[in-house]
Amino acid sequence: MDPIRVLVADDHAIVRQGICVLLAQYAGIRVIGQVSTGAQTLEQVSQLQPDVVLMDISMPGMDGLEATREIKTRWPKTQVVVLTQHESEEYVFPLLKAGASGYVLKKAGGDELVEAIRVVSSGGTFLDPSIAQRVVEHALQTLDENSPVPRLTERESEVLRLIAEGLSTREIAEALKLSVNTVITHRSNIMEKLDVHNRAELVKYAIRKKLIQI
């Protein structure tokens, strides 16, 4: 398989260099560029078309939130993993809503960061355990039991349940003995029917309808 092509965006040179040295130790991952601002990130995504961007939040000029939103609007196939020291909800939820597929804290180990890169590159979502717990708690606090239930097919319900349980697109395909493209089609149909736009909202719906247990 081709290596996962990663762009590193962080305004601290020593952090960028450390990440590059770290990732060089892992097979199947190749850093194709480093940038220090949000504007540079967009330029390099346009030119290099990376599979994954490791995105810091606090950068001069355009910050990580705005850069993430722009990337997912203009280059939706490029996945974003937020790599930050910020754990508070004021950062987490806006970035997930903007389209980030991963949220990793800088205190995490190298193996966790690499797992996040691999998971999101295959269509999955990776959240630091403490962040994942907050997403679930937020979903539980905002449940709407009386909302109408869109009509999902049996297969769509199975795909939704596996998405909510954290499986990647490839893992769902293997579990249900489907092609990856078929799973992607089901996921698109589910999002259209439920009028949701990211995995966090899908998880919330699955919890509300008791497709997964907490």
Main attributes of the structure:
Rossmann fold, 2 domains, 10 helices, globular, alpha/beta, Arc Repressor Mutant, subunit A, six-stranded parallel sheet, 214 residues
Describe the structure.
There is one protein chain. With 214 residues, this protein is of the alpha/beta class. It folds into two domains: 125 residues, Response regulator (Rossmann fold, 3-Layer(aba) Sandwich), CATH 3.40.50; 66 residues, Winged helix-like DNA-binding domain superfamily/Winged helix DNA-binding domain (Arc Repressor Mutant, subunit A), CATH 1.10.10. Helices cover 52% and strands 14% of the residues. It contains ten helices and six strands, in the order E-H-E-H-E-H-E-H-E-H-E-H-H-H-H-H. It has a six-stranded parallel sheet, with helices on both faces. Strand 5, helix 5 and strand 6 form a beta-alpha-beta unit. Helix 7 packs across helix 10 and helix 8 crosses helix 9. The protein is globular, with a radius of gyration of 17 Å. The mean pLDDT is 85.
What does the secondary structure layout of this molecule look like, with pairings?
Layout: E1 4-9, H1 13-23, E2 29-35, H2 38-48, E3 52-55, H3 64-74, E4 79-84, H4 89-98, E5 102-105, H5 110-121, E6 126-127, H6 129-141, H7 154-164, H8 169-176, H9 180-194, H10 199-208
Parallel strand pairs: 1-2, 1-3, 3-4, 4-5, 5-6
Helix pairs in contact: 2-3, 3-4, 6-10, 7-9, 7-10, 8-9
